[in-house]
Write a sequence for this structure.
């Protein structure tokens, strides 16, 4: 089973990631003879308290994505109106790109409604597709996929 191991820094589960158009949209661009857009490198944080993955607005703008749905979400601060988008999301170790990459080719994400020190909050929608092992004494965590 492929895996990626990251250090725990300041009690946060931080990962390198890339966001791009969802696989069906990338395929359509390529089939039409266009160049595939470059993925956007981002910093992500594993958030086991979130059901859905959320992406910073600047990433969505850079990819030129259009919202698929407007809906309401509920968090610790109450309800908020959010826009949903389809993307592909890749988790990797940018310092060791030869290691396996965890790829989610077509994922519905929320637009982050508040500024955070990370660009992507990776929720349970991703974590249910892999195994997360947190090794507190070793200050590391591993994703098996």
């Amino acid at each position: 089973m492929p895996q990626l191991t990251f250090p725990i820094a300041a009690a946060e589960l931080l990962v390198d990631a890339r966001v791009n158009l969802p696989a069906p949209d990338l395929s359509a661009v390529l089939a039409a003879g266009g160049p595939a857009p470059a993925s956007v490198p981002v910093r992500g944080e594993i958030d086991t308290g979130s059901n859905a993955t959320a992406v910073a607005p600047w990433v969505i703008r850079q990819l030129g994505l259009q919202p698929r749905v407007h809906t309401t979400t509920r968090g610790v601060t109450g309800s908020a109106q959010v826009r949903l988008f389809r993307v592909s999301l890749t988790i990797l170790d940018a310092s060791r790109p030869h290691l396996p990459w965890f790829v989610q080719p077509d994922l519905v994400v929320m637009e982050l409604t508040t500024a955070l020190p990370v660009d992507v909050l990776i929720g349970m929608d991703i974590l249910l597709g892999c195994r997360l092992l947190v090794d507190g004494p070793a200050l590391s965590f591993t994703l098996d996929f």
Q: What stands out?
A: The CA atoms of residues 21 and 99 lie 23 Å apart. The longest strand covers residues 78-92. The two ends are 6 Å apart (CA to CA). The mean pLDDT is 95.
